[in-house]
UniProtKB/TrEMBL annotation:
Keywords: Oxidoreductase
NCBIfam families: PRK07231.1
Alphabetical list of InterPro entries matching this protein: NAD(P)-bd_dom_sf, Sc_DH/Rdtase_CS, SDR_fam
GO molecular function: oxidoreductase activity, acting on the CH-OH group of donors, NAD or NADP as acceptor
PANTHER family cross-referenced by the UniProt entry: 2-DEHYDRO-3-DEOXY-D-GLUCONATE 5-DEHYDROGENASE (PTHR42760:SF5), SHORT-CHAIN DEHYDROGENASES/REDUCTASES FAMILY MEMBER (PTHR42760)
Gene3D superfamilies: NAD(P)-binding Rossmann-like Domain
Family statement drawn from the similarity comment of this UniProt entry: Belongs to the short-chain dehydrogenases/reductases (SDR) family.
Taxonomy, superkingdom: Bacteria
Name this protein carries in UniProt: Short-chain dehydrogenase/reductase SDR
Amino acid sequence: MVTDKLRLDGKVALVTGGSQGLGRAMAVALAEAGADVALCARSRERLCAVADEIRALGRGALVLPADLSDVDAAVGVVDDVVRRLGRLDVLVTSAATQLRKPALEVTLEEWDRLVAVNLRSVYFMCQRAAQHMIAREDVPAGASRGKIINIASLTSVGAWPDVSVYATTKGGILQMTRAFALEWARYHICVNAIGPGTFHTELTDALYSDPERAQRIVSRIPLGRAGLPEDLAGAVVYLASPASDYVTGQVLWVDGGFMLMGAGL
């Protein structure tokens, strides 16, 4: 049955930024679909709370606190998952940090911090995950070796005031996803992205703390509301599952129809 192709039983997933917001929701969704889930973020306490949710579903959970601005630590997280759980089938790179500041005032230190977390760590974690997936000897010829799911943004394709550095990193995520998908298709590794619309999370709280600005944003969403983290559940399970084995290099927009109103933000 087609629903069987959406199951992730026996799979191992790693979700960065899995301690809260969109990352937490996607990690729980993967566990609900049958995967054991490794969680990475800075806060051990928050990670442990999400791990408890996953274990309550009858799935395994591994907590791996790390500062992903340190690329060696980021790559080490991928190695730890393979070493401790024996394999890595799905990587979801949800960790990100934000800066709201006019472009004329951005400092080099701020630029480096966002690029390190949002772009550099993603690149090299994807690279390391793909290396492990390619090296697997238990995958039949022609079968999928793994799924990599990056998190894009409306700012990957549009413009929004005061988030130039974040937008630069998310534009990079979009092109990185396409480049990896092309290069790694020969190994049967699918690389896609999810493009969330306007979601109310800790990362976007500055927007929603201004009622007037929040209303302007919501008024442009055809479905009439901001996204909830749980709205990403179907997208991440689909892209992680065998149901998407012939899908690569794509962005799945989960935006309530926002993109229908034009790319400019």
